[in-house]
Amino acid sequence: MKDRVRFGKYIRFALTFGDFVVLNLAFLISLWILPAGTVFASKWVWLIANLAFIPSAMFFSGIHNDRIIYADRVVLNALQSSLLFLGVFLALLYLFDIPEIGLLTTFVFGTTLFLFLAVWWLLSRRILKRFRRMGFNFKRVVIIGTGPTGQMVAHELASDAGYGYRLMGLFDDDSKALSKIQGEFTAPLSEVEDFVRLNKIDIIYYTISGENDETIRRMMTVADEAGAEFVYVPKFHPVLQGQFQPSSVGLMPSMTHILSPLHSMPNKIVKRALDLCVAVPFCIFSPVIFIPIAIAIKMSSPGPVFFKQKRTGIYGRDFVCYKFRTMRVNAQADTLQATADDPRKTKLGDFLRRSSLDELPQFFNVLIGNMSVVGPRPHMISHTEEYSALIDKYMVRHAVKPGITGWAQVNGYRGATKQLWQMEKRVEHDVWYIRNWNFFLDIKIIFLTMFNSVRGEKNAY
To answer: Average model confidence (pLDDT) for the chain?
Structure first.
């Protein structure tokens, strides 16, 4: 049997050492890219670079400790780490009166470090997860409380063996609740202390209401005496979903609900900058694509080149959405969704829909500012009125700008919604995107959209 070996600290040391190896590799690659004779080649600059990376390595050391973290967050941390390093690096160069290394040198070095660091962190986490699936570097955990919160914690810890958690038991004084647990060791709270000590438990997750002062105090003492980590998981009401930010009411701690990271001004600026970086070049060169498509549309059937339709935008406000016309002019355009064999579609229109070329004029919506490149797809006003009465949280999808593509679309939830569950899944993915947005999630969705467009999608019609 593979027993726990306390070599986690050695793994963290090795991974942090790897961070410095990556830094020096980025330094050498940058030196190779940059012109010969630059002051960047000085050994003092090299030494300062390594010193400047220490705060970044310390501040972002959690990247090697956190077992449950998604790839886009890893890449975002790599960017933040690189920016912090550059700030300290340039400050030290100024402090030690090193001649200015120049904007180009700073950009090349910073970009190289970010790319190398992101790849290294993603690769090292993948290797660690494989290592843990083999039964090594795991943490023994127990959960105090078998209610809904405790079961959710157990589900999260067991969702991927690569996280390296081994659930040793669940404890509760509710014998009825304990009897419902299948396949796990269960026992009353009176047995926690001996169990934690004998089984060398690493983490105690406490999920019972914090109002029981004596119980929570006793469990914290058990954790402290056994050298285990104590994690208090608040017993949230089922309605309280999403992200909460610590705050206070006077001297009392509280939690403020944050619907979306996109409601903060810095993130709004970042997202708008990404939209413009994509939309402006496209709109400049759009005639190369638009003119041939426009001629083909006019030749395929009588009617306008562009199809303009009012759709629901951010905060429920209506806006005019642009598309290439793919159907013959008809009276049901604003109420009836397109189907796979819709007789209203032209042959050219069918091709434009399957290739998603009909959506290209929406880049002008992005330029105007009533759409984003990535976000929940805008629906017809009639559908907003219909589904808002049928689906919980449907209107939450309007908390951000609608997008040309979105998380729901790249996960296969696009096209006609013949059954209610299809729209429910689309809304579920849209709300998840709104609550978990970050810059690299948008980049991921953009690349997945391009890949799916080339590969073809069965629901694109």
So the answer is: 85
Secondary structure of the chain in the HEC alphabet? Answer: CCCCCCCHHHHHHHHHHHHHHHHHHHHHHHHHHCCCCCHHHCHHHHHHHHHHHHHHHHHCHHHHCCCCCCHHHHHHHHHHHHHHHHHHHHHHHHHCCCCCCCHHHHHHHHHHHHHHHHHHHHHHHHHHHHHHHCCCCCEEEEEECCCHHHHHHHHHHHCCHHHCEEEEEEECCCHHHHHCCCCCCEECHHHHHHHHHHCCCCEEEECCCCCCHHHHHHHHHHHHHHCCEEEECCCCCCCCCCEEEEEEECCEEEEEEECCHHHCHHHHHHHHHHHHHHHHHHHHHCHHHHHHHHHHHHHHCCCCCEEEEEEECHHHCEEEEEEECCECCCCCCCCCCCCCCCCCECHHHHHHHHCCHHHCCHHHHHHHCCCEEECCCCCEHHHHHHHCCCCCCHHHHHCCCCEEECHHHHCCCCCCCCCHHHHHHHHHHHHHHHHHCCHHHHHHHHHHHHHHHHHCCCCCC
pLDDT at 175: 79
- Convert the pLDDT of each residue in 336-353 to its tens digit: 777 667 788 888 888 888
Please compute, for residue 203, the number of CA atoms within 13 A of its CA located in the half-sphere on the CB side. Answer: 17
pTM of the model: 0.64
Q: What is the pLDDT of residues 7-31, one digit of tens each?
A: 566 788 888 899 999 999 999 998 8
Which residues are registered as beta bridge partners of 245?
A: 256
- All structural domains of the chain: 8-133 (no CATH), 139-235 (3.40.50.720), 265-455 (no CATH)
Burial of 457 (0-12, 13-18, 19+ CB in 10 A): middle
**Is residue 384 scored above 70 in pLDDT?**
yes
More confident: 459 or 141? 141
pLDDT 10s digits, 388-440: 888 888 888 999 999 999 999 999 887 767 788 888 899 999 999 998 898 98
Q: Residue 404: enclosing H or E segment and its boundaries?
A: strand 403-405
Place of tokens 């919604």: 417
Tell whether the model's pLDDT for residue 146 goes beyond 80. Answer: yes
Question: How confident is the model at residue 6, as a pLDDT?
Answer: 54
Mean pLDDT along residues 183-209 = 89
Share of the chain residues as helix, strand and coil, in percent rounded to the nearest 5: 55, 15, 30
Q: What's the start-to-end Cα distance of the chain, in Å?
A: 55
